[in-house]
Design a protein that fits this description.
With 196 residues, this protein is of the alpha/beta class. It has one domain (2-195): 3-Layer(aba) Sandwich (Rossmann fold), CATH 3.40.50.620. It has helices at residues 11-20, 39-49, 60-73, 77-92, 114-124, 137-147, 163-175, 180-183, and strands spanning 2-6, 25-32, 52-57, 98-100, 127-129, 148-154, 188-195. The strands form two sheets. It has a five-stranded parallel sheet, sandwiched between helices. Helix 1 (11-20) links the parallel strand 1 and strand 2. The model has no long low-confidence stretch (mean pLDDT 93).
């Protein structure tokens, strides 16, 4: 069975791919609005870890709507959630038998509720799988330490193909680079460089 996995090049989505690889023909798919070329890092990581890669064009209007929500809310949660749901919808229409993401049990954003997952499955005739949904951050970190080489750093310095990077760019373009920190709290991101 063919499975498309939303992929950032980070540790969670890479670990999800490794877990699913025994049961599915996994293709790593990076959603992209065309704002930056950070998707190339995900492509390179997919090649390094040995998976097929595809780029999925997302609707730029959704990115702008997400930025508007972030500005209104003063934090990124609802904007990132909007983008993730849009990416899953787009991925579900790409002809895969199943789709997946790297969301963990303790993620605050993005999340996919049971109702959202079932709706996605029913409307698109696919299966939605969240292989890390039973794992917390500590368990994921232990598995990653055992299997992956990872670079860790501040989100503004790590080149990753995730929604946040493009949304940060749109905020910087519209409001100036100094405004990005007002909406996106400092936190660490990961970028997978190899499999052990």
């Amino acid at each position: 069975m063919d499975l498309g996995l939303l992929y950032s090049g980070g540790k969670d989505s890479t670990l999800a791919a490794l877990l699913l690889d025994e049961f599915y023909d996994v293709t790593l798919v990076t959603g992209h609005f065309g704002v930056t070329d950070d998707w190339r890092h995900a492509r390179d990581t997919a090649e390094t870890v040995g998976f097929a890669f595809e780029r999925l064009d997302l609707d730029p209007d959704v990115a702008h709507e997400a930025v508007d929500r972030i500005r209104e809310d003063g934090f990124p949660r609802n904007g990132i959630q909007l983008v993730h749901q849009h990416a899953l919808e787009r991925l579900a229409g790409q002809g895969f038998d199943a789709i997946a993401d790297g969301t963990r049990r303790d993620d605050r954003v993005p999340t996919v509720s049971r109702a959202q997952a079932q709706s996605l499955e029913d409307r698109h005739g696919i299966e939605y799988i969240a292989p890390l949904s039973g794992f917390g951050r500590t368990a994921v970190d232990q598995l990653v330490d055992a299997r992956l080489e990872v670079t860790v750093g501040p989100s503004e310095e790590i080149d990753r193909a995730d929604y946040e990077a493009e949304l940060r760019s749109l905020v910087a373009e519209a409001d100036g680079p100094e405004q990005v920190a007002d909406f996106f709290p400092a936190h660490e991101q990961t970028y997978v460089t190899d499999v052990r």
